[in-house]
Amino acid sequence: MARRRNRRGRRTWPQRLLLLVNSLLVVACLGVAGTFNLVRAKASELPTIDIGSEARQRPDATGPRNILLVGTDSGEGLDEDDPVQVGREGENLADVIMILRVDPSTESASLLSIPRDTWVPIAPSWSKSKINSAFGGNDGPNTLIATIKHNFGISIDNYVKVDFKGFRDIIDVLGGIPVYNEHPISDRKTSLFLPETGCIVIDPVQALAYARSRHLRYQTGDTYDPKAKWITDGSSDLGRITRQQDFIRQAAQRAIDEGIKNPTTAYGLINAALGSVEKDDDLSVGEIQDLIVTFRDFSVQELTSEQIPTASGGNPKISYQLVVWDQAEGLLDIYRGIREPGQVQPSDVIVGLPASVTTSAALGEQLDAIGFDAGTEDSSVKSSGKRPGAVIRYGLRGIEAARVLASWLDGEATYEFDADLPGRRLELLPGTAPLALLETARPLDQVPEPIINERRTGKGTTTTTSTTSTTVPTTSTTATSGSGASSTTTTTTTTAPESPTTTAIGFLPLDAERAASC
Fold first, then answer.
1. pLDDT tens digits along 285-331
2. In degrees rounded to 5, what are phi and psi of residue 513?
3. CB of 335 within 8 A of CB of 358?
4. pLDDT of residue 71
5. Which of 311, 219, 301 is CA-nearest to residue 505?
6. Is the pLDDT of residue 373 over 90?
7. What is the predicted pLDDT for the residue at 103?
8. Residue 435 — very low, low, confident or very high, per pLDDT cuts 50/70/90?
């Protein structure tokens, strides 16, 4: 087994992740396209969308990158009597939501799945609903990105979307996906039916049915028996996520073998994607090629895959998933960049501004130019009222971020703790006095820290937090007791919980190790 892994280690990173169920397909297609000039030109024709209003403005193209991967439930382009169309209205919701984080400096990659039924406030009104509904409006990508930033404190750099037809077309170009199926499986709602066991090839129709399966059934034996009892996997969407992530590793090898060795196949992959795949206009083929060079030794087995821990909630009329924050916070820190060593940079910090303040748009553009991930948040962020100075609100993991933002402000401001602010997401509330930014930030040792007290956060984590406002000095003062600034500079160390050890949820019928011999 070790010998087989070493042999695969020389293949390129985008090619290894080609079939991320729905969305990661096109990212890898672009990676394959970098090998062939003709295919590369074809890849440049992929439909693009502007997500500039919500995407992080990246000053360093070589830094860590979060790519939002969306698979929609749109059946556009499929026949009306297609199995996918049965029993559904095609609302164009986000059926699959994943965030792929790649860090060229450490040559690491992680994949986070967000259950589509996660119950959170949805932009722009911030009324609670399932997160997949954030994609259903006219400005779906931007609304979903804003919702993710607001609720999880994760910045998004790029975006890729594919629908059902695009997924099936790409599987068709690859000639199906070889797998090792340990048990007969089916799902009557998606028309999945794979009674054969052992080495089989999943065709495009059954591959999509498997990826969509939320009501998977299986027989305990390794041979199909029409009279045998079917056992239902009750894990629903959570089990589906596990199977989707496992499918990455099994399908990626097929893409490697069929794509990189065959220019005709690579061309077909891009051609299949043209009608059903969408990406943001900042994700260029050149950037993908740079990632290929950086990740040329990356093994698909090293891809870390996780899902946000949730618990069932709701009532007889509507069921949904509630985030288990005590378990989620440490896991989410990876995608926020909090575990990276070194000083917090503006690009690590999300800044929400109140849409009700007329200067917010211009201020947001100035913050973006510095490198912050800034944006207005409609009714979510209120103004600071009649106070002359600005207010910086921060959560448990935003203490350092608050000081970084304060170091750029030319004017008075106070800190306020808000337990519900996740990660390094801050809220900047301008006061009645004009708020300007400095051309160069003050040294952090001249910026006071928030006052620290012990209390329980609103998301159930007991830790050190701040409940008292602290004055941030203007440009004419320094953070010393003799300068008129706050003298509360004592540091209290807070320890973030470790990332939870995640285990597979639901029934997993495809054996990845045995599939290698198929």
1. 666 656 655 665 666 667 788 999 999 999 888 999 999 999 998 89
2. -65, -45
3. no
4. 87
5. 311
6. yes
7. 84
8. confident
User: Which two three-digit tokens encode residue 434?
Assistant: 């004009």
What is the DSSP track for 60-115?
A: -TTS-EEEEEEEE---TTS-TTSGGGTT------EEEEEEEEEETTTTEEEEEE--
- Residues 160 and 174 sit within 8 Å (Cβ to Cβ): no
Helix (H) or strand (E) holding 399: helix 399-406
Q: What is the pLDDT of residue 55?
A: 82
Check residue 273 and give its pLDDT.
63
Contacts of 59 (CB under 8 A, 6+ apart): 347, 371
Using alpha carbons, list the distances in angstroms from residue 205 to 170, 459, 488.
11, 42, 63
Residue 59 and residue 147 in contact, taking contact as beta carbons nearer than 8 Å: no
Nearest alpha-carbon partner for 370 in 347, 352, 390 = 347
Residue 198 has pLDDT above 90, yes or no: yes
In the block, residue with structure tokens 């933002």: 405
Sequence-distant (≥ 6) Cβ neighbours of residue 389 within 8 angstroms: 411, 412, 413, 414, 431, 433, 471
- Cis before 473 (ω within 30): no
CA distance 210 to 241: 11
Burial 426-440 (b: 16+ CB within 10 A, else e): bbbbbbeeebebeee
Handedness of CA 83, 88, 92, 95 (dihedral sign): negative
Contact 38, 265 (CB under 8 A): no
- pLDDT tens digits, residue range 227-262? 999 999 999 889 999 998 888 667 766 766 675 556
Q: What is the pLDDT of residue 262?
A: 67
Mean pLDDT across the chain: 77
- In 344-469, beta strands by DSSP E: 350-353, 373-376, 390-394, 409-410, 413-417, 425-429, 436-437, 453-456, 462-465
Give the tokens for residue 292.
């290929």
For helices 24-33 and 263-273, the axis angle rounded to 10 degrees is 140
User: What is the C-alpha R_g of the chain?
Assistant: 24
CA angle 339, 341, 347 (to 5 degrees): 80
| Structure tokens given for 68 | 């939002």
Q: For residue 467, give both structure tokens.
A: 């409940």
Sequence-distant (≥ 6) Cβ neighbours of residue 45 within 8 angstroms: 274
Q: How far apart are CA 479 and CA 447, in angstroms?
A: 5
Helix axes 24-33, 164-173, angle to 10 degrees: 40
DSSP for residue 407: T
Nearest of 28, 138, 126 to residue 427 by alpha carbon: 126
Bridge partners of residue 192, in order along the sequence: 187
Give the per-residue pLDDT at 61. 66
